[in-house]
Design goal:
Elements: E1 4-14, E2 40-49, E3 52-58, E4 67-70, E5 75-78, E6 80-82, H1 94-101, H2 111-120, H3 123-139, E7 142-148, H4 155-168, E8 171-177, H5 188-196, H6 198-203, E9 209-214, H7 221-233, E10 237-242, H8 250-257, E11 261-264, H9 270-278, E12 292-295, H10 297-303, H11 310-316, E13 320-322, H12 336-346, H13 351-365, E14 382-385, H14 392-395, E15 402-407, E16 410-411
Parallel strand pairs: 1-4, 1-5, 6-7, 7-8, 8-9, 9-10, 10-11, 11-12, 12-13
Antiparallel strand pairs: 1-2, 2-3, 5-14, 14-15, 15-16
The structure holds zinc ion.
Residues 84, 86, 241, 325 line the site of zinc ion.
C-alpha cells in the first residue's frame, strides 16, 4: 500500500486552488479543482499519498496518516516552476558580466563564446554542468524546470543538447534559432533553412517545445515565424524570446501562432499588452491554450536594463509568469526566490502575485495541469520555508529560506 504523509501545523499553506480562503475566483471557472488564482489556508495541513496531494484543509481536521511532519508554523508553498532556463552549456562569462557592470552594453552576440565552449565540451562535461544546476535549483525550491538547447547550433550539437536536457526534465525546448553561428555570418537564410530542416528533424524527437530568439542581432520576425511553424508541423509547441532589448514583433507573433509563452516582454507597445491580455489563459485551460507573459528579471539585473512593467501587464489582465532565464551570459542565477524578490521590489508585483507567477504562472506557461498548485490531484511538489509566510521571500532577500523540498512526494535530503 502507498504510504501517506500528513504535514500538520502549517502556518500558511499557499494552495493557488479555487475555493480556498482568499481565492478571488472562488465561484469562478476554476472552482471544483485544479489550478486557480492565488489562495491560501492559515493553520493548515496537507496529506501526500505516493506522488500526489490527496487532502488539504485546516490543521485541526487533518486525517490520520502513516507518518506525520510537524511544520511548526512554517509556510508551505507549491514548488517553483521555472519555465525558462538554458542549462546545457560549457564555460562561463564572468569577465563579460564584469565589463557590463563597468559600463559596456549587452548584445545578443555574446552567446557565440558559449557556443564555442559547448561545442568543444564532452557529453559528460555538459551532463555534469546540467546536473549541478538542476541540483542547485531543487535546493532552492524549483521542482519543475524547462531546459533549452541553443548553444550547439550544429545538427549534431543541438541534437545532443536536447537529448541531454531530456535526461533531466520533460520540458525540453529546441532553440536552434538562438543566434546565427559565426560560420553562417552573412547568410542567415541558409542557417534558418538548417534550423527548420535537418536540425529540427534531429531534435524534434527529444523536445516538447520550439523557441526562437526574436530580436535585433538574432532573428527577424519572418525568420522566427518560419522556424516556429516548421516546429509546429512536427508537433512542437512554440514559445518565443521577444522584446528583451527593444520593441519588436515577437509578442504579436507569439499570440498569432498560439505560443504558450512570450518571454522577456521588457519593451512592450500598448498593442502588445492588449494582445497578451486577450490571449491570457484561464487557469483551467492549463493543458490547452493561451499565451503567458513570462518575465525574467534576472536578465535585467544581469544586463542592468530597465525591468519589465509587470504592473501594466497585470492591470491589463495578462497572465504573468516569473522565471530565471538561467544562462551563463545575461542571467546566471538559478534562484526563483531571487526573481520573486526582484519582482516585488522593482517590478511592483505584490508578494502574492510574484509567488503565484513563480508557481501557477510557470505551470500555465508550460501548459501543465499537475503542478503550480496544492490541492487533491496535484503532484506533491512543495516547499516548506523557514518563515511563517510567503512574503518573507521578498522581505528577506538573499536568505536561504527554503527549509525542505518534496518532489513527486519524495522529501529531498538536505
Ligand atoms: Zn532565454
Amino acid at each position: 500500500m502507498t504510504k501517506s504523509v500528513l504535514i500538520n501545523r502549517i502556518g500558511e499553506l499557499v494552495t493557488n486552488a479555487p475555493g480556498d480562503a482568499g481565492a478571488a475566483d472562488a465561484a469562478g471557472p476554476g472552482a471544483g479543482g485544479g489550478l486557480g488564482r492565488f489562495a491560501l489556508i492559515n493553520d493548515a495541513a496537507l496529506v501526500i499519498e505516493g506522488d500526489r496531494i490527496v487532502w488539504t484543509g485546516p490543521s485541526d481536521r487533518g486525517p490520520a496518516a502513516d507518518e506525520s511532519v510537524d511544520a511548526a508554523g512554517r509556510a508551505v508553498l507549491p514548488g517553483f516552476v521555472d519555465s525558462h532556463a538554458h542549462l546545457v552549456f560549457a564555460g562561463e562569462r564572468s569577465a563579460e558580466f564584469a565589463a557590463r557592470m563597468a559600463g559596456r552594453g549587452y548584445a545578443a552576440g555574446g552567446i557565440r563564446s558559449t557556443v564555442a565552449a559547448t561545442r568543444a565540451a564532452t557529453d559528460a562535461e555538459l551532463r555534469a554542468g546540467l546536473r549541478r544546476l538542476a541540483a542547485e535549483m531543487l535546493a532552492q525550491g524549483t521542482t519543475t524546470f524547462e531546459c533549452k538547447s541553443g548553444y550547439g547550433l550544429t545538427v549534431e550539437d543541438e541534437a545532443r543538447s536536447v537529448a541531454l536536457a531530456a535526461e533531466a526534465t520533460d520540458e525540453v525546448t529546441y532553440l536552434g534559432a538562438h543566434v546565427v553561428p559565426a560560420e553562417f555570418e552573412g547568410d542567415a537564410g541558409a542557417y534558418v533553412d538548417l534550423v527548420r530542416g535537418p536540425m529540427l528533424d534531429a531534435c524534434a524527437p527529444h523536445a516538447r517545445w520550439v523557441d526562437v530568439f526574436c530580436e535585433r542581432g538574432a532573428f527577424s520576425v519572418d525568420e522566427a515565424r518560419a522556424v516556429l511553424t516548421a516546429g509546429q508541423a512536427r508537433g512542437l509547441i512554440p514559445r518565443i524570446h521577444a522584446s528583451q532589448l527593444g520593441p519588436g514583433e515577437g509578442v504579436q507573433l507569439a499570440v498569432e501562432l498560439g505560443a504558450a509563452s512570450a518571454d522577456h516582454c521588457t519593451f512592450l507597445t500598448d498593442a502588445d499588452v492588449d494582445a497578451l491580455a486577450g490571449a491570457a489563459p484561464s487557469p483551467t485551460s492549463a493543458g490547452t491554450a493561451g499565451t503567458v507573459a513570462t518575465l525574467l528579471p534576472g536578465a535585467e539585473f544581469g544586463t542592468r536594463q530597465p525591468y519589465p512593467d509587470a504592473r501594466r501587464l497585470l492591470d491589463a489582465g495578462a497572465t504573468v509568469a516569473l522565471a530565471t532565464d538561467c544562462n551563463p551570459g545575461s542571467s546566471y542565477t538559478s534562484s526563483m526566490p531571487f526573481c520573486i524578490a526582484l519582482a516585488v521590489r522593482d517590478m511592483h508585483m505584490t508578494a502574492s502575485e510574484a509567488v503565484w507567477a513563480a508557481t501557477a504562472g510557470g505551470a500555465l506557461a508550460l501548459r501543465r495541469g499537475d503542478v503550480g498548485y496544492l490541492a487533491p490531484g496535484a503532484r506533491a511538489d512543495l516547499i516548506m520555508l523557514d518563515a511563517p509566510s510567503h512574503t518573507y521571500l521578498a522581505y528577506r532577500p538573499g536568505v536561504p529560506l527554503v527549509h525542505d523540498v518534496w518532489q513527486s512526494g519524495m522529501r529531498q535530503p538536505h
